[in-house]
Amino acid sequence: MTIRAEQVYGTWRLVASTAVDAGGRPVRPPYGPRPMGRLVLDEAGRMMAVLCDGRPAMPEGEKRAYGSYCGNYRVENNTLITTVDAAAVAGRIGGRQLRKLEFRDGRLVLIPLPRPNGEQRELFWERDGPP
């Protein structure tokens, strides 16, 4: 199924995040047991994503996972392609972020490229605002 940009317009709420290692074995969810986030994709081709571990307090010695970026985007070949103009990680600014797009059980699934260590993440979003 080909995903069109108009199918992803709107505001989305992060409801789950999963990850597997290079061997396909599950690893700790990237945004903890209570992921929190918003993804906004507008009709003008602008997007923003903010994600974090939503636990009210972190266990001793753990850092809160956090990520955010925004920029102009397009949907092409079931891939969300964003040219980043602001980000929590400075190295992303001016670059491109690629996220494979799928729909599963009414949820939008964003799948980033594998991390350098082979970890593969999936982010599950439910619509939280009108398209």
Offer a concise description of the structure:
With 131 residues, the protein is mainly beta.
Layout of strands and helices, then pairs:
Layout: E1 10-20, E2 35-41, E3 46-53, E4 66-76, E5 79-87, E6 96-104, E7 107-112, E8 120-127
Antiparallel strand pairs: 1-2, 1-8, 2-3, 3-4, 4-5, 5-6, 6-7, 7-8
Per DSSP E runs of 2 or more residues, the count of β-strands stands at 8
Helical stretch count? Answer: 0
For the report, how would you describe the main beta sheet? 8 strands, antiparallel, barrel
- Molecular shape: globular
Compute the CA-based radius of gyration.
15 Å
Question: And the CATH topology?
Answer: Lipocalin
Terminal Cα span: 19 Å
Helical residues, percent: under 10%
Note the beta-strand portion: over 45%
Descriptive terms for the model:
single chain, 131 residues, Lipocalin, eight-stranded antiparallel barrel, 53% strand
Describe the overall structure.
The chain contains no helices and eight strands. The chain is mostly beta strands. An eight-stranded antiparallel barrel has the order 1-2-3-4-5-6-7-8. A hairpin with a 4-residue loop joins β2 (35-41) and β3. It is globular.
